[in-house]
Amino acid sequence: MSASIKLAKGRDKSVRRRHPWIFSRGIEMVTGDPQLGDTVDVFAHNGQWLAKAAYSPNSQIRARIWSFIKKEIDTAFFIERIQQAQMLREECIARGALTGYRLIAAESDSMPGVTIDKYQDYLVCQLLSAGAEKQKQHIVEALKHCFPECSIYERSDVAVRKKEGLEETTGLLHGTEPSEPIVIEENGVKIQVDIKTGHKTGFYLDQRDSRQHSMKYVKGKQVLNCFSYTGGFGLYALKAGAERVINVDVSQPALDIAKQNAELNGFNIKKAVFLNADVFKILREYRDQGTQFDVVIMDPPKMVSSKSNLTSGARGYKDLNMLAIQILKPGGTLLTYSCSGLMESGLFQKIIADAALDAGREVKFVESFTQASDHLFDTAYPEGLYLKGFAAKVV
Ligand code: SAH
């Protein structure tokens, strides 16, 4: 008999509501000695079969559900999941003529711990959970079946793997190594993606829609693009006719690619600056010097990584946004985002309100944003909605 877990009394509710996580405290008994990533059957306290899940002995999230119906977790299973994910994205891909998109958004695509982004003919995988790691070969075989033309590259160099008892790892899983950065196109903007050494899988695909929405605020304007990475919002600003764009990031490789991206698109490079600086410091410098902008874009990395640092993370967001508001000209626009899933949109809105108070300026929200639709989320897994943003006018 295969290994199984029995839930404690009353702990089956979230599973019945199809949430994919089972916490260690919700488990009454584990039988059959499952090892790291093994597939286990999940039973309610009354003995009813509920799901098949991957066992993570080292994590608080002790099991992640693969399936709520009885079926083998094998190559055919993942083929079905991948085909469904592709189908759900067809409209989004066609609409944006996308050559780079998120194919698998982990739990949101019923593949816990598995993120897969597609950049042209490269599939870049991030396997974050013990179960994902255990199923690696099946996942690779399924990808080969669904996308025979594609090479597959692994970017599992993420610290959270430690919590699952896994080492960080990267490298080619199938096909050929990319010899140079891959060029994708979104909304008519060309972007180089370095899948081997770029952040995450190489690019922040989730901000695609926000980048496009930002274009209506920047024509003829002085734009400060904070946390620019490889250009992102700054490239769209140049395309939309910004007068000047200052891109700020602490990563020199990212800034080098940002400049190459501007050239690749044939944008007027004289209108762009690529500044290696700490955003927190440079904002204070601009404020103290009295340097002002028409538009400030604020897209920081995730600053809330666990419930325990929600307060300090919130303070970080408030500081950044206060400084941004202080350096905006009257009538200027703040485009601000948070990718911290643990900080809900309502709280982010309050933080901007506090930032406005501290800056001593009147601020009006004019638009709100969310992640692009290839970053869909399941009704049973609200955690899948993590990115929010606002456009706000500063009086
Ligand atoms: N807006 C980008 C994505 C930003 S990701 C896009 O549309 O693609 C966050 C970026 O913040 C990373 O490139 C990282 O190098 C940079 N970063 C992190 N801390 C920073 C700091 N204190 N000052 C400047 N840049 C920072």
From TrEMBL:
Localization recorded for this chain is:
Cytoplasm
Q: Give GO cellular component annotations, separated by semicolons.
A: cytoplasm
Q: Which SUPFAM superfamilies match?
A: PUA domain-like (SSF88697), S-adenosyl-L-methionine-dependent methyltransferases (SSF53335)
Does the keyword section mention Phosphoprotein? no
Any one GO BP annotation for this protein: rRNA processing
Concerning InterPro entries, the annotation shows: PUA (IPR002478), PUA-like_sf (IPR015947), PUA_sf (IPR036974), RlmI-like_PUA (IPR041532), SAM-dep_methyl-trfase (IPR019614), SAM-dependent_MTases_sf (IPR029063)
Q: Which UniProt keywords apply?
A: Cytoplasm, Methyltransferase, RNA-binding, rRNA processing, S-adenosyl-L-methionine, Transferase
Gene3D superfamilies reported in the protein's UniProt record: PUA domain, RNA methyltransferase domain (HRMD) like, Vaccinia Virus protein VP39
Which parts of the sequence belong to the PUA domain?
Answer: 3-87
- Give a GO molecular function annotation for the protein: methyltransferase activity
Methyltransferase is among the record's keywords: yes
Q: Which family does it belong to?
A: Belongs to the methyltransferase superfamily. RlmI family.
- Protein name per its UniProtKB record: 23S rRNA methyltransferase RlmI
Encoding gene per record: rlmI
